[in-house]
Amino acid sequence: MENLLEVKGLRxxxxxxxxxxCAVDNVSFVIGKGETVGLVGESGCGxxxxxxxxxxxxxxxxxxxxxxSVLLDGRDLLALSPKEMRGxxxxxxxxxxxxxxxxxxxxxxxxEQIREAISLHQGLGRKDSRAKAVEMLRLVRIPDPExxxxxxxxxxxxxxxxxxxxxxxxxxQPRLLIADEPSTALDVSVQAQIMELLLDLREEMExxxxxxxxxxxxxxQMVERVMVMYAGVIVEDASVSDLFSRPEHPYTEGLMASxxxxxxxxxxxxxxxxxxxxxxxxxxxxxxxxxxPKRIDRCLLEEPPMFDTGGGHLARCWLSAxxx
Length: 324
Description:
alpha/beta; eight-stranded mixed β-sheet; four-stranded antiparallel β-sheet; 12 helices; 33% helix
């Protein structure tokens, strides 16, 4: 599969009174053309910062990208001027945020916000951009799109607002869609509808998708490959079938064990003991070592690299190192 996006050695820091805090540290991965990839991990692990770094939306100050490259079809987005990057956003890469009510402008109608994005990126006149906006509302299955064009965000339900955000993101037919927790604020039935919509649109528009979530059940249904993130680094990268059948990293195993199961009756769900390390004081060795039930002495002293455990299944764990 030909690669669309290649992230190499990405490092993003935020300045604090105590010094720089590294939120994303030496992150590398690829996304193929037409591929759907999941990025999972607990809150605060660096998933959203990774997405914002790819989009060049990190606020400076206090944040800044200090190392790495983000190649889109071989073009380094980190080397582009702000004007050139504005041309990439929307046209080549779009993002759907997790809370549409805070992303949509409350004083403009939903249709006008979509129309403005189309006009800005595609240079269409008011009449043509309005027609395209109505078409996008219809594409994301909003009933009576001509009427709902004039609705303000507060007049729509949470699910409808998220559909508006998806319509806006897809209005210029991007090659890569980043969906950052697109169903977190929605109830379960609406979540399923939004996920089904994204799957259908991905196939219809033949685009790549980076799905950011903390919900492994969503990952199992939506993606072809999964990356697991912990404390700013990717600790495992595998196909979805491999990850669920043979997780290699102890953190991934802990995430799997914490999922409720209908076929098992337990009084208390498993939890991962301990706390995530302070980004200002990362341990010398593996970042998961303080919480890991399988740690060995080497885990406390040296940070492990990514090891290929077979079939492209990568794990950042000394227990996955090939035997001499």
